[in-house]
Amino acid sequence: MIQGFTVRRALPFDAPKVIAVIDAVGAEGIWLATDRYVPTPQWEQVLHHPDAEPRALLLVAETQKKIVGWCRVFPYKFGDKSLHVADIGIGVHRDSRRLGIGSALLSDAISLARSQGFEKLTLDLYSSSEIARHLFERVGFQIVGIRSRHAKINGTYVNEILMEMKL
Ligand SMILES: CC(C)(COP(=O)(O)OP(=O)(O)OC[C@H]1O[C@@H](n2cnc3c(N)ncnc32)[C@H](O)[C@@H]1OP(=O)(O)O)[C@@H](O)C(=O)NCCC(=O)NCCS
């Protein structure tokens, strides 16, 4: 049972615990594009060398020294015409959901992204992820596109929903 939690920026020593919670959410097999952490350049940088790209943001939720959730804000990665745009992603360990952790992570991430000078946040999620969609719509994200039958989860096609929020 969770007594309380704090949301803070991730530090390099958090990396193994962050990867563990990403692996746990991924292993559920229905929420994320991959079933485990994939070391993309942006992820590796924000986890291990956060000072190298100060505009990238990784927040973690911690309870009793355990990392139970994350929210990432990654600057849009292609070219220099979209420096005002960042892409966001979030996850909370299944044992720690429905306690307000996702809301707290997202709220802090949006505030920090705004103060960092970003003007728009984007994200994508599966049409089957109704809880996440509810959370994103509550804080102001709007659906701007749908990629039909973009993923197959347990043999069933789902759409990919593209959402945006102006900051
Ligand atoms: C989406 C997610 C981050 C929410 O985290 P959380 O800590 O449970 O969120 P909160 O406790 O702050 O709840 C957020 C809202 O969702 C609702 N909610 C959460 N779990 C719910 C459930 N099982 N059934 C119905 N509503 C639920 C809450 O009531 C709350 O709504 P409200 O603010 O209108 O009352 C979490 O469910 C998760 O990690 N999902 C898997 C990863 C994912 O889908 N990521 C999105 C793709 S980037």
How would you characterize the overall build of this protein?
There is one protein chain. The mean pLDDT is 96. Helices cover 28% and strands 35% of the residues. It is an alpha+beta fold and 167 residues long. It starts with 5 loop residues before the first strand and ends with a strand. It is built from 4 helices and 7 strands. The radius of gyration is 15 Å and the shape is globular. It has a 7-stranded mixed sheet with strand order 1-2-3-4-5-7-6, with helices on both faces. The chain has one domain: Gcn5-related N-acetyltransferase (GNAT) (Aminopeptidase, 3-Layer(aba) Sandwich). Coenzyme A binds next to strand 4, helix 3, strand 5 and helix 4.
**Distinct small-molecule ligands in the complex:** coenzyme A
- Our estimate of the beta-strand percent is 35-45%
How many runs of DSSP E, i.e. beta strands?
7
Sequence of strands across the biggest β-sheet: 1-2-3-4-5-7-6
Number of domains: 1
The general outline is globular
State the CATH architecture: 3-Layer(aba) Sandwich
N-to-C terminal Cα separation, in Å? 35 Å
CATH topology category name: Aminopeptidase
* Backbone structural class: alpha+beta
What is the CATH homology-level superfamily?
Answer: Gcn5-related N-acetyltransferase (GNAT)
CATH classification, class level: Alpha Beta
Number of separate helices: 4
User: How do the SSEs run, as a string of H and E?
Assistant: EHHEEEHEHEE
Regions with little confidence, pLDDT below 50 for 5+ residues = none
How helix-rich are the residues, as a percent range? 25-40%
